[in-house]
Each structure stands twice: as structure tokens, then as C-alpha cells.
Amino acid sequence: MLTAKFEYKVLSESVLSLPTKFKEVIYMHYYEEMKIQEISQVLSIKINTVKTRLNRGRNILKETYEEATK
Fold it and tell me: pTM of the full predicted structure?
């Protein structure tokens, strides 16, 4: 139980520390459960741009999370 709380805290802090352009798409997709097309419309950016930002944001989160949990 304590480990799950720690992991959630690390993940939340990692999301908040992302650059804005990655944080906003990660938040909309995972926390607001918006589809890529919806995010594209809300932010007025291309669908491929949303996909790229999601992938780059995930990669940054993965690296940050792995470092924090070592």
C-alpha cells in the first residue's frame, strides 16, 4: 500500500514537471480521458502533433519515473 502511494506521488510529480506542451496533452488524454482528435480540436493543433507530444511526454515520464524509483 505504501509503495503504491509512493509510486502515485512520483508519477503525479513527474507529470506536473513536464514542459507545458507535453503536460497538457498527457493530462487531457489520461486524466480527462479525451481522444486524440478532441485534444487536437481543443488545442488547435494537428492530430500528428498531439500523437508526437503524447509519445515524447510518455518517454520523458518513463525516464523520470525510472530514475525516481531506483
Answer: 0.85
